[in-house]
Write a structure and sequence with these properties.
With 523 residues, the protein is an alpha/beta fold. The protein contains 19 helices and 18 strands. The protein folds into 2 domains: 227 residues, 3-Layer(aba) Sandwich (Rossmann fold); 268 residues, UDP-N-acetylmuramoyl-L-alanine:D-glutamate ligase (3-Layer(aba) Sandwich), CATH 3.40.1190. β17 and β18 form a beta hairpin.
């Protein structure tokens, strides 16, 4: 079911990996100028296609290509030449003269067919313009300052006013290609056109905010020539086709126990809503049975609010709590009172070591004081931290997590041996693999409407339900995708704000149905 052929357009590479791929192709006999020519032509064609889709077929705006000194600038000269041959009014503003032989050659090739293509007006007039950002590529390691920063700020201001539409080549200038960190100031693009492979930095919260719509174009050599070791370890995007292959088929003879019984523990006094939402998320993702367990002092209030779910008072000494449960979710509304640590330790001690365990919210805070997680087999626990919770687990700042989310999720997996769901824009799912390896999958669904109380509780419950029938890593990936897809569908119908977590839980079955249709179409 999960043996899906590798699709190289879903791999996310670092600057060093991209450079190594290009160097290997050049060493094997592909001229570097050909790679640049192919990249620039493909980017220009993508710009034209997007302009037609966005404005209509009769658009004839001026196009300003901003070039830097390196090979990203060389790509920009090719874009300008290709656009000129297609009849577009394309000119180049060079931040600096070419510093590589390839870029210099492409500048000469542009001037040979269009001597008037180079403009010297400083700054360029971005009013009513199409801007192609070819200033800096994925190898940028320094902040943009002085003239470069001013040029980027001017382009951004024009876009913000609606006076310009912006396309970036490979990565928006000023964005770290590996981490998505903003280097001082960065271009905000409407579309980012990556060459051969998507870049990690465009799939982080900050990078995505600057990249706009992202696409990958061919540079004329098979991506299958990528070093197999790099392909095996690179983070990869979880799109609909990939995730649909994870969907478990439900037997015609299925019954509620086969679908899975999820135990959700939390709901301290005043926090029963979190527990209820997690239960709704579990049912929405396919659980057959859900039991909500809470402290005895909160049980009576919980009991009068439930319909489909069962309830149980949380007694740490009562081992029957775990009977017939396939997955345990601890944390939604668990609380941090004086008894919380004792109850948490008792739950970890009583839950079977090999059975899937999901730790969310308050459980992640309590986990810092526990040593029991290290006794569980690798990959059987699922942690669902946001940046602040991840920072506490690693003993670092939130800024450090956000500056390198890929590195953070790998550190968390290495430290805990767990599947880690690092929540945020483009949620990351990291998981231990054979030996000491770590896989990282990147969500392609979700939007800011999820920034509402209770959405994380729904996600924890959904992952718990899916872990009844899937390995923990796949349950986390599928749960994250469905959670985001449900929010995307709601936003498409209702707008960007106002999504409630209870509505999100109710939308999970439709999101799963849409994914089932995709999976059926691929078989």
């Amino acid at each position: 079911m999960n043996n899906v052929p590798l699709r190289h357009e879903l791999l996310l590479l670092t600057a060093a990996e991209v450079r190594a791929f290009d160097d290997a192709r050049i060493a094997a006999g592909t001229p570097s100028l050909l790679l640049m020519e192919n990249a620039g032509r493909a980017a220009a064609d993508a710009v034209v296609a997007d302009l037609a889709a966005h404005y209509g077929c009769n658009i004839r705006k001026k196009i300003i290509v901003l070039t830097g000194a390196g090979n990203n600038g060389g790509d920009g000269y090719v874009v300008a030449r290709r656009l000129r041959t297609l009849g577009w009014d394309a000119t180049v503003f060079a931040l600096a003269p070419p510093a590589t032989p390839e870029a210099a050659t492409m500048k000469q090739a542009l001037v040979a067919i269009a001597p008037d293509a180079l403009v010297v007006r400083d700054p360029p007039d971005f009013e009513d313009a199409i801007v192609v950002d070819a200033l800096f590529g994925v190898g940028l390691t320094r902040p943009l300052v002085d003239h470069a920063a001013a040029l980027v700020s001017a382009a951004n201001l024009a876009r913000q006013r609606g006076a310009a539409r912006v396309y970036s080549l490979d990565i928006p200038s000023g964005i770290d290609g590996d981490t998505g960190e903003v280097r001082g100031v960065a271009i905000v693009a409407d579309v980012t056109i990556a060459f051969a492979f998507a870049k990690r930095g465009a799939y982080t919260p900050r990078g995505a905010a600057h990249a706009g719509r992202r696409m990958v174009v061919d540079i004329g050599v098979p991506c299958s020539l990528l070093d197999p070791a790099v392909a095996a370890m690179a983070p990869r995007l979880d799109d609909a086709q990939t995730v649909a292959a994870l969907l478990p088929a439900r037997s015609p003879e299925a019954h509620k126990y086969a679908a899975g019984h999820v135990l959700v523990v939390g709901g301290a006094v005043g926090k029963s809503g979190a527990l209820l939402l997690a239960g709704d998320g579990a049912f929405g993702a396919g659980a057959g049975l859900v039991t909500l367990a809470c402290p005895p002092e909160a049980h009576a209030a919980l009991e009068v609010r439930v319909k489909e779910t069962m309830t149980a008072p949380l007694e740490a000494e009562d081992g029957t709590l775990f009977a017939k449960k396939k997955v345990c979710v601890i944390g939604p509304g668990f609380g941090l009172c004086s008894d919380a640590e004792r109850r948490f330790e008792a739950l970890l001690a009583g839950w079977p070591l090999a059975a899937p365990l999901v730790l969310d919210a308050d459980a992640l805070t309590l986990l810092g004081a526990s040593s029991r997680l290290s006794r569980r087999p690798r990959g059987t626990t699922i942690l669902t931290p946001h940046s602040a919770e991840a920072a506490r687990l690693l003993g670092c700042s939130v800024a450090a997590i956000d500056a390198d989310r890929y590195g953070a999720v790998e550190k968390l997996v290495a430290k805990t041996g767990a599947v880690v769901v690092l929540k945020g824009a483009h949620t990351l799912v990291g998981a231990p693999t054979a030996g000491s390896g770590i896989s990282v999958h990147v969500a392609t669904t979700g939007n800011p409407a999820l920034a509402v109380g209770g959405s994380g509780d729904v996600l924890a419950g959904a992952i718990g339900a899916l872990a009844c029938v899937l390995p923990p890593r796949d349950a986390a990936r599928l749960g994250v995708y469905l959670h985001g897809a449900a929010a995307d569908a709601w936003v498409a119908e209702h707008g960007s704000v106002g999504l409630r977590a209870s509505v999100l839980a109710d939308a999970l079955p439709r999101a799963r149905g849409a994914l089932e249709a995709i999976g059926a179409g691929g078989r």
